[in-house]
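Schema walk-through. Below, the input block comes first and the output block second. Nothing else is stored per chain. Lengths vary across the set, and this one has 424 residues.
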Amino acid sequence: MAYVDDMRVIKDENPFESMMSRFDHAARLLNLNPDLYQVLRVPNREFTVYIPVFMDSGKIEIFTGYRVQHNFARGPAKGGILYAPDLSLDEIRALAAWMTWKCAVVNIPFGGAKGGIVCNPTHLSPSELERLTRRYTAELIDVIGPERDVPAPDMNTNEQTMAWIMDTYSMHARHTVTAVVTGKPIDLSGSRGRREATGRGLLIVVNEAVKKFGLRPSETRVVIQGSGNVGGTAALLMHESGYRVIAISDIHGAILDQQGLDIPDVLEYLNTNKSLENYPKAQPISNHELLELECEVLIPAATENQITSQNAGRVKCRILAEGANGPTTANADEILERNGVFLIPDILANAGGVTCNYLEWVQNRMGYYWKESIVNERLEDVMVASFHDVVKYAETHHVNNRIASYMLAIDRVAYVTQIRGIYA
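--- output ---
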């Protein structure tokens, strides 16, 4: 059994190929047993469902839904649900595998999963979205659950979506099952601190990287691509921690102030106007220019494939903390490493969300809920320990942080798989 050739051509835009090329590289460096390699390289299960929905017009439309369960070795599968018109099975596969490695990197007892529905939620009414969500849940009722697969919100889904899923599952179970999903409203057994958890996790790992390089927050320029829940929260928390956030963007463009943006004012403007366009207190720039600004910390927190082989050579940050899933392509990694960029990879940098989801699941199963300060303290404990685990692994094995994070995650999953054995 041979590993996949490193010399194969990886297309920048294919997230599954980018993820698998990194997996193959890490597996080779670990000298992973070929049999274990075969097991870990493929998803455990894939489901495609076709969902009939009564539209408000009275007509029926058929939507396509996916759920990929990548691995169960360390515990129930865990991963979000996306609603998007351009969703593909390849993307879901990549994100499910990412979840396996992400959970293993932060050492929480979950495997990885991901799901989604091909739709444009902006074209659907709230009642159509509810019917779509409930039917999707019903189609997967036998394969999700607190001990099987625990969904969470992701792109274009939210607390309301999770409430519908929880209610649908509970109706079938004939009793309330809060632990079937995470990311629920606080009044419906959600966790305090969850909404800010991914952004807070970014702050925590950036703090550790800044300490490593002997920088001071007040002298550290931060550029953030994205101003949604992840990017906006990270920007606010970093501003409150004394960092100089000089640029931030939304889908329409970016704004820049070398002296540092007033982030609360920026976010208030964004909330009121639904766009950063025409923000009067900063210079407008393009999203492409934002990624190439000179800074100490760059946080791509928007979407995948933003830093590619085409622009990686023009990235001028010292620390790159990946807030989004897969914002840097495999082809760009080598360029960034050659240029001395200290990378905090996505499966570590944005793992604050899944870590807090784990804390919500634990609280649901106990029926006892912590105050926010305790949730944040436990989140910080996990993120700090995981950051140093990855950095130590990188230094020990003489690899970059991306490969170190994959090696650490694969090593943990492979060990558990080997100890459990293959049931046949």
